[in-house]
């Protein structure tokens, strides 16, 4: 099958590399010339475990190529995947400008019948719009069938998610297009759910909104646990054993970040509002998350008072481990709050420093080594649960910090372990208990 993927971002690159791995002839197009130049030279613009080797192998064997030329990309394709960004506009709606440009481009370039498959997360009704744009501009003798095929991969495990995902959703009323898409995905042996286009679009928003709700729920509960002296990790374990609740996505912490949960929850709230059906539940989910991201700085002030001129080691900049993505990362909120308080910040991250630097510039210092970040710090805040942070010897806090105070926004260390060290440790559970405990030691 000749496949074109529009967009060389996280979704576009993973889709391109994995479809090439399945033996298809894949062309990936992006409007950013410098990205394409980099990819053509064999370098990936993003960090995603396992992606580099798949890109390298499939470029070398001729299954995968990159271009910035729309005619070259679209004219002969059997299937075109749209994987361009749909970022939030100022009012929280999904910005569809990139989608519109791709749809126009496809309409003008195709020279044969084609299936256009939307992987980008788009509000309900967008695929109908894409169909209209293409139908009104394409050569009249050609057929283009638009199919909704939302993507559920997670950054950091995107390749595994492609090959071992929980489900594939194909939204179309056209049985011929559905069959072709089902054939494409058949080798993966993943359950395929076939729906109409609008339901497929809604499944994507509903999935992300449900997961975000689970996170805000557990964070809300963590804050109540702290007040009443219960341990949120024990509580999560206890409720997670109920099959109807499940053990996943119950990690309390500094809230959800990333390029999707924040934008997709906001987009769904806006969509509901536009339909005169305000979503009170999702509004609360967002509010809880915003508050949660500022919690480490509130804890810091409660613990050491004024943060003015205090040296803070921020451990982790990525919105989660195993990615270099800092979009909507909780760390960015923490930095903003710390700088507002007059603190001096030195941040460690194994992969995300270049992306963070593009946003934060020289407002903070950067450290590629945890020890350097901790050196002489008054306080450490853990924002991302990287293995490099979880597996560090806890002695290091004592040897490098003045009087070690660690605010752990990701519950990285077992309490029985941390209690062996002279560290004031404040995690997203039982603050008072742990602080008193240290004083007793
Ligand atoms: N990042 C993720 O983990 C997931 C993202 N999604 C959704 O997939 C979509 C893409 O997300 P990301 O890959 O994170 O975006 P991204 O921002 O990393 O990449 C998008 C790429 O599209 C390119 N682009 C823009 N206009 C173009 C055009 N006319 N032709 C060709 N390329 C064009 C951009 O230059 C950019 O490289 C979004 O709708 C997102 O919500 C869905 C599931 C997972
Ligand atoms: O639409 C998308 O882009 C994707 O969004 C999420 O994937 P992703 O954002 O890559 O990462 P997650 O693992 O879901 O984590 C999102 C955020 O929630 C936080 N989180 C996650 C789980 C948890 O228990 N607690 C928690 O705070 C993470 O730290 C992170 O900041 C979804 O999991 C994917 O299915 C979806 O395709």
TrEMBL record:
InterPro entries: 6-PGluconate_DH-like_C_sf, NAD(P)-bd_dom_sf, UDP-Glc/GDP-Man, UDP-Glc/GDP-Man_DH_C, UDP-Glc/GDP-Man_DH_C_sf, UDP-Glc/GDP-Man_DH_dimer, UDP-Glc/GDP-Man_DH_N, UDPglc_DH_bac. Belongs to the UDP-glucose/GDP-mannose dehydrogenase family. Pathway: Nucleotide-sugar biosynthesis; UDP-alpha-D-glucuronate biosynthesis; UDP-alpha-D-glucuronate from UDP-alpha-D-glucose: step 1/1. It catalyses: UDP-alpha-D-glucose + 2 NAD(+) + H2O = UDP-alpha-D-glucuronate + 2 NADH + 3 H(+). It comes from the Bacteria. The keyword Oxidoreductase applies. The keyword Oxidoreductase applies. Residues 313-415 form the UDP-glucose/GDP-mannose dehydrogenase C-terminal domain. This is UDP-glucose 6-dehydrogenase. Its EC number is 1.1.1.22. Keywords: NAD, Oxidoreductase. The lineage of its organism: Bacteria, Bacillati, Bacillota, Bacilli, Bacillales.
